Amino acid sequence: DQTICAPLPVLGRDVVVPLANGGEVAYAALDYAASAPALQRVWDDVAGYAPYYGSVHRGAGYLSQLSTDLFEQSRATVAEFLGCRPGDQLVFTRSTTDSLNLLAAVLPPGTRVFVFETEHHAALLPWRGAEVTYLDAPRTPGEAVGTLERALADRTPYGPALVCVTGASNVTGELWPVRELAAAAHAHGARIVLDAAQLAPHRPVDIGELDVDYVAFSGHKLYAPFGAGVLAGRADWLRAAEPYLAGGGASKQVARRADGGLDVEWHTTAARHEAGSPNVIGAYAIASACRALTEAGFGPLVAREQALVCRVLSALARIPQVKVLSLFGERAERVGVVSFVVDGWDSSHFAAALSARYGIGVRDGLFCAHPLVRTLLGAEPDSAGECGASESEPGERSLSAVRVSFGVGTPDEHVERFLGAVA
Ligand code: PMP
User: Fold this and answer.
1) DSSP 93-150
2) Is ligand 1 within 6 A of the CB of residue 197?
3) Ligand 1 center to residue 26 CA distance, Å?
4) CA dihedral sign of residues 303, 305, 307, 313
5) Ligand 1 centre distance from Cα of residue 33 (Å)
6) Of 13, 190, 267, 384, which shows the fewest CB atoms inside 10 Å?
7) Is 387 annotated as catalytic?
């Protein structure tokens, strides 16, 4: 379906911000890759539910029962959105970072982890305690598959392995060949987790169809508010491991033993890793966002986003001082995430100028993907650079880029204002 739909209503679309010249302008949020504005529809759903929320799982009162039902229905809605297979588990977490740390905590002993150096730090760093192979940045999607296949085939001993890969880069927006990487992983007896933090807001993610073992994403990038995320996938490792958090909710029975210690029986459902009072509102908001995206339809949403991506890339290509960052080359398919550097400008000053003069919010820095940005900028592996805003003086060029990113709520005017400002 190539029909282009109108932008979906999001929060903050009427926010007016001050400009350096004393004027003011409606804020243009072009930083969706960091956190997308929540859909108005999600906010309305949450506001509709807010008066009724109560404690889940343990309460006998009517509102507790209602909240328990809504929490579990939210789990079912998100599982359906992700195309979960029968027997998969879906754990509500705090974020993608939390989801991948949870998966790292449940790896069977001796699991080898394979991860491309191009990943976001949330996917690069959680595997403490495991033996990790960092794979060099590929220059084509096909090279990514070849690199992974060789690394998996060469592993010794040939034991359990997990591959962690992003679906869409938070720096270049480029799509990774997830289905092919999953096939390569499985051909070599490995499992694969998809970091869908940037993919899920822009493309349908179907666990069964992509044939990945796990998916992780964050609500705040999927047009829901902060504080909730998801890890979904195969139940066996999740069931077999110690609870990620120990406490109430994860435990089924606790009793004193004759020797004075404690006997604990843990749940084997998702509750095993959700100890404490869960973020019911956050889960409900994610489910609402899933419903809203499904109803709007990814066909028209993707068509609209692709039109904006083409508009941005072709306009930036006409400005000789601008260099767009890309791993896979000009013809790679991207979501609405474009990073670039501008000759003669420090990225932090460029981003600050977009904000102060035009009311446009973008991000600058290394985007929590330091090795990738260093590779893209051709920097030495150990050169300096902070994650987040850089602190260089005017005229001095720090190792960083500017990132513009957009999504289902972005009106054409925001993109046109941005392109006019860059020009
Ligand atoms: N993976 C990718 C690809 C991301 O872009 C991000 C967020 N920038 C994360 C993981 C981490 O997400 P969160 O901060 O919500 O944990």
Assistant:
1) ESSHHHHHHHHHHTPPTT-EEEEETTS-HHHHS--TTSEEEEEPPPSSHHHHHHHHHH
2) yes
3) 27
4) negative
5) 8
6) 384
7) no
- How many residues in total does the chain contain? 423
Q: What is the CATH number of domain 43-295?
A: 3.40.640.10
For 264, how many CA atoms within 13 A lie in the half-sphere containing its CB? 14
- 205, exposed or middle or buried, with CB in 10 Å at 0-12, 13-18, 19+? buried
Answer CATH for 16-37+297-422 from 3.90.550.10, 3.30.450.30, 1.10.150.120, 3.90.1150.10: 3.90.1150.10
CA–centroid distance, 195 to ligand 1, in Å, is 8
How do residues 120-142 score in pLDDT, each as one tens digit? Answer: 999 999 999 899 999 999 999 99
Q: What is the reported pLDDT for 8? A: 96
> Does the ipTM surpass 0.95?
yes
Q: Is 0.90 topped by the overall pTM?
A: yes
Of 215, 212, 167, residue with least CA distance to 190: 212
